[in-house]
Amino acid sequence: MLSLPPSARIYICHQAVDMRKSFDGLAAASSQLLAQSPDSGHFFVFLNARRTLIKILNWDGDGYTIWSKRLEQGQFNLPKAVGDRLLLDLRDLHAMLDGVKPGAYYKRFSKKM
Questions:
Q1: pLDDT of residue 106
Q2: What does the H/E/C string look like for 59-79?
Q3: 46 Cβ contact partners less than 8 Å away, ≥ 6 residues apart
Q4: Which is a Pfam family this sequence falls into (predicted)?
Q5: How far apart are CA 105 and CA 83, in angstroms?
Q6: Among candidates 69, 72, 71, 76, which has minimal Cα distance to 101?
Q7: Which of 10, 80, 73 lies closest to 46, judged by CA?
Q8: Which of 81, 99, 86 is nearest to 45 (CA)?
Q9: What percent of the chain has pLDDT over 70?
Q10: Residue 76's closest CA among 43, 100, 41, 60?
């Protein structure tokens, strides 16, 4: 499970990215495709065309870190709330990484007594 500082934002790239890219290639993609500075301390999420591989790039102050996950079956499902937005919230990122399908969100409620 990822824990993020409260000031960090999570940007998602809607275009498929060549997953052979590493630190410098993903940093260039974050500035070109997302129009964001890769060394801002924010998190940048990239998916391949089949959505079976995800990479998350982050600048932690003295260098880049990459978090990667590859699925053996299925694919990563983008939350419905994302649409064309570039920003994700932490809940949507965790749901996507855990394999929750977008239609499976239910609003929680409690009975008022």
A1: 54
A2: ECCCCEEEEEEECCCCCCCCC
A3: 13, 17, 19, 21, 26, 29, 54, 55, 56, 57
A4: TnpB_IS66
A5: 15
A6: 76
A7: 10
A8: 86
A9: 83
A10: 100
8 A C-beta contact, residue 102 and residue 80 = yes
Could you give the CA distance from residue 69 to residue 85 in angstroms, rounded to a whole number? 22
- The pLDDT assigned to 85 comes to 74
**Which candidate, 93, 100, 105, 101, places its Cα nearest to that of 10?**
93
In sequence order, what are the residues at sequence separation of 6 or more whose Cβ sits closer than 8 angstroms to the Cβ of residue 85? none
| Residue closest to 43 by CA, chosen among 83, 81, 13 | 13
Q: What type of residue sits at position 7? A: S
Q: Classify residue 43 by burial, with Cβ atoms within 10 Å: 0-12, 13-18, 19+.
A: buried
Q: What is the pLDDT of residue 90?
A: 87
Strand ranges inside the chain, DSSP E: 10-12, 43-47, 53-59, 64-70, 87-88
Q: How many residues does the chain have?
A: 113
